[in-house]
Design goal:
The complex is a heterodimer. Chain A contains 15 helices and five strands. Chain A has helices at residues 3-18, 21-41, 62-70, 84-92, 123-140, 162-165, 168-199, 201-208, 211-236, 244-269, 272-279, 283-295, 300-307, 309-321, 331-356, and strands spanning 49-56, 75-80, 98-102, 111-118, 146-153. A five-stranded mixed sheet of chain A has the order 2-1-3-4-5, sandwiched between helices. In chain A, a hairpin with an 8-residue loop joins β3 and β4. The mean pLDDT of chain A is 85. Helices cover 33% and strands 27% of the residues of chain B. Chain B has a six-stranded mixed sheet with strand order 6-7-8-3-9-10, with helices on both faces. In chain B, strands 2-1-4-5 form a four-stranded antiparallel sheet. Chain B has a three-stranded antiparallel sheet with strand order 12-11-13, with helices on one face. Chain B is globular and about 70 Å long. The chains are: A alpha/beta, B alpha/beta. The interface between A and B is medium-sized, with 22 and 28 residues.
């Protein structure tokens, strides 16, 4: 493969795409949706929420002191628990993100408290821990003489859905980016390929470059559009993924897993307008799949989501975008994307070989 | 056996070439060879196999059987070896409509590893320098065809394939294209031409092959084909009394009658009726080139 030829075709494809109104709309639409959804879902005054189970044996008003200490930073809800056992049950049932156990203060000794914190506690729940010493001291009336210890708890069996954990605005941004990547791989790339086939320029290029060089350039243009579109979406929404490299890699992984099918579609159709007309129907299934990823956590639909590249790519991005890791999508998600990539490019290679014969 | 040109190693050589699409035999064992600097014409109906032959020779289709070589390299397997030495003016205007003429050519300069200045030179050769910065979508059919020719000239090909190159061109542009073809052939390039225009084939081609139903039914110089297959020579004679006569010159009677009329001073006009390549094709195929091939796409 001659990379200078690939580069020349790539530059041509990028330039040509920017002159094609149909492609510009396909790129702008998902970015616009992400920005719109994010803007309408986000509340600038919104504070992170957390719930704490409080065992206040000395009835010193610890719950109120905690809420007061958290007033500026966390929307804190406190639930009174009778004893440690009740508090543990609340944490296990995920009714509370953590628990504070405060024995009755003893005269002449520092006020004491023990915090029960699950190993997978959210950053908000962890931040509440930092508020306890001051709140305890204030409630016991003897700051700063307190002793606070943290007792880690095993991760409770979760029945929370991802949508309950994730920030709504950020979730919409990821939905928009998955839609963008899908549009690029399954509409923009095939439209460019189909137009080359339909107008005969593919044949003209074949005189000066090999088929794989032409297709590689088109796949690369898809990757670049996906990458730039993702960056632009994040820039406009002022979103900084917590794990930026895994986030971008997930976007690229999803693009690569789909782009082989996009090239196939372009080769098979040979009609860019047809793809543009009927490709609009693609948006609904993709949106349904990505939203389903957020709310479905069992049943046959979950099996379907487990094998689809859209949902696995979305899971990887949801995990990387915020501090929470709602799906814990790792190797399996990457393997699913890799499998789709291999299938797509294997079928593409076979089709190209048959066409050339 | 292929018809081998008289001198030099063949620029294009085809032997028992076959191409099948399912049950359809687009090419059914054709053989020929062309010499460097030769203008070779392939004539036939739509669907006769002309474009399929060009597709195979330019590496864009794989033959079902037989052998095809360009500049001594088998195509399409060894296409990389000859990629920079061949080019094609296709039948349809395969250009990037949203790009300018110059951008179209500069892309191919990059693909061929040539300096970008070649684009300007090629545009000047086809009289399109004034439209270099114009988007191709604003071009007329003739301008697009000239742009295709400019693209084909970029790499100064040793073998240039022209697929119906003057279709849609005005007479002036067609004449200029003919001059360019002659100039390239004079410089040693081999021109491989398909055309429906019998006058074009007659005036441009050193040799022509007639293709019918995937087979070559005749291959020779235009003159030899006309002499061999064009029927008997005839003359149209205009007489002093305003009447006209057509006399065949093959038999003694016709020649004697013409001599008698000339001697008697009765001849006012005299026109020879030479066979054309179209006559030759009708004699070979039983129908004119303008008639569609039965079942042609």
């Amino acid at each position: 493969m001659n990379f200078s030829r690939v580069l020349a075709i790539l530059v041509k494809d990028l330039t040509d795409a920017m002159r094609d109104g149909r492609i510009i709309i396909l790129l702008v639409l998902p970015i616009g949706l992400a920005v719109f959804w994010n803007a309408t879902a986000s509340d600038p005054d919104e504070r992170p929420e957390s719930t704490v189970a409080v065992v206040d044996e000395g009835r010193i008003g610890l719950a109120a002191a905690l809420r007061e200490a958290a007033a500026d930073s966390v929307e804190l809800e406190t639930i009174a628990a009778a004893d440690e056992r009740a508090a543990r049950r609340m944490v296990d049932a995920e009714d509370a993100a953590s628990a504070v156990l405060a024995p009755a203060p003893v005269e002449g000794e520092p006020a004491r408290a023990r915090i029960l914190l699950p190993e997978n506690a959210t950053p908000t729940a962890q931040s509440v821990v930092a508020l306890v010493p001051a709140a305890l001291g204030a409630a016991a009336g003897r700051p700063p003489s307190t002793e606070v210890s943290v007792q880690p708890l095993p991760t409770p069996a979760s029945d929370q859905r991802a949508i309950d954990v994730l920030d709504t605005g950020t979730s919409f941004i990821v939905v928009g980016i998955v839609t963008l990547v899908t549009f690029v791989a399954l509409l923009v790339v095939p439209m460019q390929t189909a137009e080359e086939i339909g107008t005969g320029t593919f044949g003209a290029l074949r005189l000066a470059a090999t088929g794989p060089e032409i297709l590689a350039a088109k796949a690369l243009s898809g990757l670049l559009f996906a990458l730039l579109g993702t960056a632009l979406t994040l820039l406009i929404t002022q979103t900084a993924p917590d794990d930026p490299i895994p986030f971008y890699l997930a976007g690229l992984g999803l693009t690569v897993s789909l782009v082989g099918f996009g090239l196939l579609l372009g080769l098979a159709s040979g009609n860019a307008n047809q793809i543009n007309t009927y490709g609009g129907f693609l948006i609904m299934p993709v949106l349904v799949i990505v939203f389903a990823t957020l709310i479905v956590d069992s049943g046959p639909l979950l099996v379907l989501l487990d094998v689809l590249p859209f949902s696995q790519g979305a899971r990887l991005m949801f995990d990387a975008v915020g501090p929470e890791d709602p799906f814990g999508a790792g190797l399996v998600a990457w393997l699913v994307l890799a499998a789709w990539c291999v299938v797509g490019f294997a079928v593409l290679t076979r089709v190209v070989a048959r066409r050339e014969a | 056996m292929p018809a081998v040109p008289e001198a030099g190693p063949p620029a294009v050589e085809v032997e028992d070439l076959e191409k099948h699409y399912g049950d359809v035999r687009a090419l059914d064992g054709i053989s020929f060879a062309t010499a460097p600097g030769e203008v070779f014409g392939l004539l036939g109906h739509n669907g006769a196999g002309k474009s399929t032959t060009i597709r195979i020779l330019t590496g864009r289709a794989r033959p079902t059987g037989g052998r095809a070589e360009v500049l001594g390299h088998a195509v399409p397997d060894e296409l990389d070896a000859v990629r920079s030495a061949i080019n094609l003016v296709p039948e349809t205007p395969t250009v990037y409509e949203r790009a300018t003429a110059e951008e179209n050519l500069k892309l191919f300069c990059k693909l061929y590893g040539l300096p970008g200045e070649r684009a300007g030179t090629a545009l000047e050769r086809v009289r399109l320098a004034h439209a270099a910065k114009r988007k191709v979508k604003t071009f007329s059919t003739g301008m697009r065809q000239r742009l295709l020719l400019a693209r084909a000239l970029l790499n100064e090909p040793r073998v240039l394939f022209l697929d119906e190159p003057t279709r849609g061109l005005d007479p002036q542009s067609a004449r200029e294209l003919h001059d360019l073809v002659r100039e390239m052939a004079g410089g040693g390039s081999t021109i491989f031409l398909t055309t429906h225009d019998m006058n074009e084939a007659d005036s441009l081609c050193d040799r022509v092959a007639f293709l019918a139903d995937g087979r070559i039914v005749a291959l020779d110089t235009p003159l030899a084909l006309k002499l061999k297959l064009g029927g008997t020579p005839e003359v149209d004679v205009g007489l002093d009394d305003g009447s006209e006569l057509r006399l065949g010159l093959e038999g003694a009677d016709g020649r004697a009658e013409l001599e008698q009329l000339v001697t008697a001073g009765r001849v006012r006009t005299l026109h020879s009726r030479e066979a054309t390549l179209a006559d030759v094709f009708i004699a070979l195929a039983g129908r004119s080139l303008d008639d569609e091939e039965p079942g042609a796409p």
